[in-house]
Every structure is written in structure tokens, then in C-alpha cells.
Specification:
The two termini are about 45 Å apart. Strand 1 and strand 2 form a beta hairpin. The protein is built from three helices and two strands; from the N terminus they run H-H-H-E-E. The longest helix is centred in the first third of the chain and has 46 residues. About 10% of the residues are buried. Helix 2 packs across helix 3. Strands 1-2 form a two-stranded antiparallel ribbon. It is α+β, with helices and mostly antiparallel strands.
């Protein structure tokens, strides 16, 4: 018991304990930064692919099946499984005359 009390009062190596805790926080922060950067890259690529699909489908709106064309153009610009992404929904909603087309996409990105 005497050694335990002496160990508790000792100040030798106090900096190394603080350094160890700081290292854990630094590694966690770096991991969070990497995951956020990956999510932003995927979001940007997904938005660009959706814009391209909207423009392509809009130019052929009166002559084609909108849903199949949307899928074709979207996945041509956003490869399946890009950076570990899973697309959960890809929808197209035209109005009655196909003059206004709304596109939406949702997906998940796995963390590293």
C-alpha cells in the first residue's frame, strides 16, 4: 500500500500521460476529418451526376422513358459503389406535361 501512495503522489512521467490522451484525440480528429472530406467528395460527385442526368433527360423528355434514362445517365457519371457509397433512392418526378422535372438522390457513405 505504501508503494501505491508513493506512485499516486509521484510527478514523474505526468507529461507522457497528457501526451497519450492528446494522441488519442489527435487520431480521432484526423479520422473525423478524413470521413467528412470523403462525404463532401461523394456529395459533389453525386450532385454533378444528378445535374448531368437532369440535363440529358430534360432534352429528351417527350420521347423516352424518363426513369430508365435517368438511371442510365446518373450511373454513367456516378459509378456504383463509388468510394463505398450505397445509393438508397434515385427518383424522378415530372409534371403532367414533362415540362418540369424534379430529380432527387439519397445515399450513404461508409466511414473509414
Amino acid at each position: 500500500m505504501k508503494h501505491f501512495y508513493r506512485w499516486c503522489r509521484s510527478q514523474d512521467g505526468a507529461v507522457s500521460i497528457i501526451g497519450a490522451f492528446s494522441l488519442v484525440l489527435l487520431i480521432a480528429s484526423a479520422g473525423a476529418a478524413i470521413d467528412m472530406a470523403r462525404a463532401q467528395i461523394v456529395e459533389m460527385r453525386m450532385q454533378n451526376a444528378l445535374d448531368a442526368a437532369g440535363l440529358a433527360v430534360g432534352s429528351e423528355a417527350s420521347t423516352v422513358n424518363l426513369s430508365s434514362e435517368e438511371n442510365k445517365y446518373f450511373y454513367a457519371n456516378f459509378p456504383s459503389g463509388y468510394m463505398g457509397t450505397t445509393i438508397t433512392s434515385l427518383t424522378i418526378t415530372p409534371n403532367s406535361s414533362n415540362s418540369v422535372i424534379s430529380l432527387s438522390v439519397a445515399g450513404t457513405v461508409n466511414t473509414v
